């Protein structure tokens, strides 16, 4: 069940959604949103992770822009892209790392803490994980990135040594196949990094509320995500 919480940051209290597993405790996962905010789709994925035994939190990353509800309806894509263009990226990275640290400190979290990010959140999660490692803070224990939209500009300038899994469609309208292959070659130099690709799948193929949804790619990618998380963040 979704519980409204707030996470302290240097700019104030950031709203977030907390999902507890049936046991009430377990490893932690930070879920980072697409450009549409913490939408119904993101909340469903967060709830599914909680059902698997994880303590899950999804922060409202657009809160500094005064937006704490999903971007929906006609024009949602344009509005979401406009929000990302207005967003202070480094502040968003700071908010994501604050969320990881907040979750790690929760009494309900009895294991490691991972990050699962979608689209905008996939790139943000990668940057946040790299930042925590560079600062010497407790690193994330696992990272799953779905078609991280910022990765084309991040993969060759920062490093994540935590185990990570990256999903990309090979018919992505925003990240072409040559770019995917460059990202794959760069990231997989790091032991413990896996890049999975999906022929025919577009960007946001996992989002079943969007026209780009690819049911077979989504099902396979989610099964791989579950397996990866069970291996890296085992639930007792």
From TrEMBL:
Pfam families: DLH
Residue ranges of every copy of the Dienelactone hydrolase domain listed in the record: 15-231
Any GO MF annotation of the entry: hydrolase activity
Entry's EC annotation: 3.1.-.-
Keywords, ordered alphabetically: Hydrolase
Keyword Hydrolase included in the entry's annotation: yes
Enzyme category, top tier: hydrolase
InterPro entries given in the database record: AB_hydrolase_fold, Dienelactn_hydro, Dienelactone_hydrolase-like
Name of the protein described by the UniProt record: Dienelactone hydrolase family protein
Organism in which the protein naturally occurs: Terrabacter terrigena
Source organism phylogeny: Bacteria, Bacillati, Actinomycetota, Actinomycetes, Micrococcales
């Amino acid at each position: 069940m979704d519980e409204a919480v707030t996470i302290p940051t240097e700019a104030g209290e950031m709203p977030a959604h907390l999902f507890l597993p049936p046991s009430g405790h377990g490893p932690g996962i930070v879920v980072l949103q697409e450009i549409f905010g913490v939408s119904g789709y993101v909340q469903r994925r967060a709830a599914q992770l909680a059902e698997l035994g994880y303590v899950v939190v999804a922060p409202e990353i657009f809160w500094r822009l005064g937006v704490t509800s999903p971007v929906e309806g006609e024009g949602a894509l344009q509005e979401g892209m406009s929000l990302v263009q207005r967003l202070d990226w480094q502040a968003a990275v700071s908010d994501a790392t604050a969320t990881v640290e907040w979750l790690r400190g929760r009494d309900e979290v009895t294991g490691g803490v991972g990050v699962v990010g979608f689209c905008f959140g996939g790139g943000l999660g990668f940057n946040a994980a790299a930042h925590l490692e560079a600062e010497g803070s407790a690193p994330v224990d696992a990272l799953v990135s779905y078609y991280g939209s910022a990765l084309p500009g991040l993969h060759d300038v920062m490093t994540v040594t935590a185990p990570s899994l990256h999903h990309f469609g090979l018919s992505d309208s925003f990240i072409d196949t040559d770019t995917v292959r460059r990202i794959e070659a760069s990231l997989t130099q790091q032991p413990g990094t896996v890049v999975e690709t999906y022929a025919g799948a577009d960007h946001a193929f996992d989002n079943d509320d969007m026209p780009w949804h690819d049911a077979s790619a989504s099902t396979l990618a989610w099964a791989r995500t579950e397996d990866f998380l069970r291996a890296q963040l085992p639930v007792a």
